[in-house]
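Here is the promised in-class demo. Please do not try to memorize the tokens; focus on the logic of going from shape to residues.
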């Protein structure tokens, strides 16, 4: 079968990007439209949806409360859930002593195994940033426990961090490569002013998942091609290294919903096809 978007092992979309933005936040679980998004993704040749697990009504999120319904949508549409973005941990940093967090993670791991999801995205940004010695120590302790929890599940952790290339590479040397990889977010790196060449040189071999997004330097998300992210350069680097992990569009969204997404898909297609 000819793939619509030929990059990585699977090319998909972040949950919510196929729906209009709501007042619950820029990235949040789309309660009213999550089932319809599977059909919309399939119509566009997208191969997966990266599930969003945020704090609002956490226990009621279908991936925890109704996994059978999610499996039904993946089976009917052929659109998989290969990764889960644990956004709730941005409000509640993972802590070895927080039994509540571990209970959620245990339930999530069970659900991911049922779905065949292989990557758990751990956002170490905002309140979960690792830029202080105390936060690094907290994370190191939690990472040991997380590695033990996931050791027999086949699930890998994909870390998203705001650390610079050298600091992130140093952290990765302390983490089991069989469990921990990198979620490389093109837009967030542009926001922080990091050069993708330095990042790939530092830890490119640990990248397990890529988010395609554009942001202004020290500014917000913008439509692809309107910010400071070198998206063509990153895609070329991914091709050179023969990247074989999932690639997720975490692109700009607004109250228009599908229109702005389709515009960005049209912008991106020539780059993926080598015509730009």
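The designed amino acids, position by position:
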């Amino acid at each position: 079968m000819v793939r619509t978007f030929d990059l990585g092992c699977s090319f998909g979309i972040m949950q919510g990007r196929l729906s209009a933005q709501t007042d619950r936040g820029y990235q949040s679980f789309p309660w009213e439209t999550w089932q319809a998004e599977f059909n919309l993704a399939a119509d566009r040749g997208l191969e997966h949806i990266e599930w969003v697990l945020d704090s609002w009504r956490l226990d009621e999120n279908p991936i925890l409360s109704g996994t059978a319904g999610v499996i039904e949508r993946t089976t009917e549409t052929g659109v998989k859930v290969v990764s889960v973005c644990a956004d709730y941990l941005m409000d509640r940093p993972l802590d070895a002593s927080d039994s509540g967090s571990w209970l959620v993670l245990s339930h999530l791991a069970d659900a991911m195994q049922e779905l065949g999801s292989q990557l758990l995205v751990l956002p170490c940004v905002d309140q979960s940033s690792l830029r202080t010695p105390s936060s690094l120590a907290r994370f190191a302790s939690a990472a040991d426990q997380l590695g033990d929890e996931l050791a027999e599940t086949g699930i890998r952790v994909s870390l998203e961090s705001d650390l610079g290339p050298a600091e992130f590479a140093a952290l990765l040397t302390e983490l089991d490569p069989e469990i921990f990889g990198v979620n490389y977010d093109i837009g967030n790196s542009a926001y922080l002013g990091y050069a993708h060449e330095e990042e790939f040189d530092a830890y490119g071999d640990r990248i397990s998942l890529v988010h395609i997004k554009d942001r202004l330097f020290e500014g917000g998300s913008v439509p692809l091609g309107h910010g400071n992210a070198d998206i063509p350069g990153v895609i070329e680097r991914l091709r050179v290294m023969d990247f074989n992990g999932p690639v997720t569009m975490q692109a700009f969204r607004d109250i228009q919903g599908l229109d702005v997404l389709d515009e960005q898909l049209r912008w991106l297609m020539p780059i993926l096809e080598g015509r730009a």
